[in-house]
Specification:
The chain has three domains: 3-226, P-loop containing nucleotide triphosphate hydrolases (Rossmann fold, 3-Layer(aba) Sandwich); 233-315, Elongation Factor Tu (Ef-tu), domain 3, CATH 2.40.30.10; 322-425, Elongation Factor Tu (Ef-tu), domain 3, CATH 2.40.30. Strands 7, 8, 9, 10, 11, 12, 13 and 14 form an eight-stranded antiparallel β-sheet that branches. It has a six-stranded mixed β-sheet with strand order 2-3-1-4-5-6, sandwiched between helices. With 426 residues, it is of the alpha+beta class. 18% of the residues lie in helices and 32% in strands.
Length: 426
């Protein structure tokens, strides 16, 4: 476990914010991230010099900040993002992990992967083009993934002469569309990533805008209450039995807290065995903790010598997940081979792996119109639909809207080990 995973329940993860960028091709996602890195002084001088040199060699009369994030050679050649690029930076107030996700429709699965762990989704639109099909698609996916905070950045305002009227047109159109989605918190900011307007500092050319700059919003948004601190969930990943004389009696259960707060002395229930015990100690490396909470990675020790192994779940006796072999979920399909009823796959849920049978495909969701296609009985690459599965062993799950860790799973090809799809339990 690293330092970014520690903190207090009031401000977990030492003020770490994970956010994902999304939007259509050429809306300026990579440029925006480059601007954030540059203006927050989070890049080295030699990195900036290399980007400036490349920009000059290409004949640009400006520094192409997108080169700071488009790391693949094919991305630089095409000027697009293909893979999910992760970047890290920090300010005195907060640490950030950015997932720069692709804009092309054929890379929707990459976008889902990058946004699945995000606290905030950042959707860019070109002020000249307005909302596009991809803008709506990514907003729908962020809503399905239950990303609790959404920021719409109306980019390239410099190319529409910083028009307040144009900003309000896009503002009205998107807020109307967002009423159909599950978006608890929406903020809309006019920016110019290339010029730096309203990214780190307020723009002098948009004095009509009274809101915060993007970085100020990212630094101050409250995400502590987004985590489930009520329902205790601790999936066991590994049983710790040191091979040394000093710790010959040591037996601990390592994993990442998925929900609730664990404290020494708490009564706990181990599923699926149903055995009960109390927490004796919670260890982090070589020190004991008085409490653990999401997303901390810790080792839990119990007072009684009960049978606990990888895939088991430690929870509270009066607040436990209901084991189930019949799973109803929204699935994003990531394989070129279609998902069809009667198909057999492997399923990985938290730390537990099982086999599963696809019982039925209830409908395919049109992520542009939100129309449910009840006639389609298969899902092809990048499509999202509602699927019913039957697993060989019970899964200890919660609804995805309640807990994004215990409410999600991935489907795997048993023969190749390739990830086929990602699911969100209804």
């Amino acid at each position: 476990m690293t330092g970014i995973d520690s903190g207090t329940p009031g401000r977990p993860s030492m003020d770490l914010l994970r956010f994902a960028t999304a939007g259509s091709v050429d809306d300026g996602k990579s440029t925006l991230i480059g601007r954030l890195l540059l203006d927050s002084k989070s890049i080295f001088a030699d990195q900036l010099a290399a980007v400036e040199a490349t920009s000059v060699s290409r004949g640009y009369d400006y520094t192409d900040l997108a080169l700071l994030t488009d790391g693949l050679r094919s991305e630089r050649e095409q000027g697009i993002t293909i893979d999910v690029a992760y970047r890290y930076f920090a300010t005195p107030n907060r640490k950030f992990i950015i997932a720069d996700t692709p804009g092309h429709v054929q890379y929707t699965r990459n976008m889902v992967t990058g946004a699945s762990t995000a606290d905030l989704g950042l959707v860019l639109v070109d002020a000249r083009q307005g909302l596009t099909e991809q803008s709506r698609r990514h907003a729908v996916i962020l809503s399905l993934l239950r990303v609790p905070h959404l920021v719409l950045c109306v980019n390239k305002m410099d190319l529409v002469e910083y028009s307040q009227e144009r900003f309000h047109e896009i503002h009205k159109e998107f807020t109307s569309f967002a009423t159909k989605l599950s978006i608890p918190d929406l903020t809309i900011i006019p920016i110019s990533a290339l010029k730096g307007d309203n990214v780190v500092t307020r723009s002098k050319d948009m004095d009509w805008y009274e809101g915060p700059s993007l970085l100020h919003h990212l630094e101050n948004i409250h995400v502590a209450s987004d985590r489930d601190l009520v329902d205790t969930r601790f999936p066991v990943q590994y049983v710790v039995r040191p091979k040394s004389d000093e710790y010959h009696d040591y037996r601990g259960y390592a994993g990442r807290v998925a929900g609730g707060i664990l404290k020494p002395g708490d009564d706990v229930l181990v599923l699926p065995s149903g055995m009960t015990s109390k927490i004796s100690e919670i260890d982090l490396f070589d020190k004991a903790l008085q409490e653990a909470f999401p997303p901390m990675s810790v080792t839990v020790r119990l007072e009684d010598d009960v049978d606990v192994s990888r895939g088991d779940m430690i929870c509270r006796p009066q607040n436990a997940p209901t084991p189930s072999q019949d799973i109803d979920a929204m699935v994003c399909w990531m394989s070129t081979t279609p998902l069809r009823p009667r198909q057999k796959v492997a399923i990985k849920h938290t730390t537990r792996t099982a086999r599963a049978l696809i019982k039925d495909v209830l409908y395919r969701l049109d992520v542009n119109s939100l129309h449910r296609d009840l006639e389609t009985k298969e899902l092809t690459l990048n499509e999202i639909g509602r699927v019913q599965l039957r697993t060989t062993i019970p899964l200890l799950c919660d609804p995805y809207e309640k807990n994004r860790t215990t409410g999600s799973f991935i489907l795997i090809d048993e023969a190749t080990g390739v990830t086929l799809g990602a699911g969100m339990i209804n």
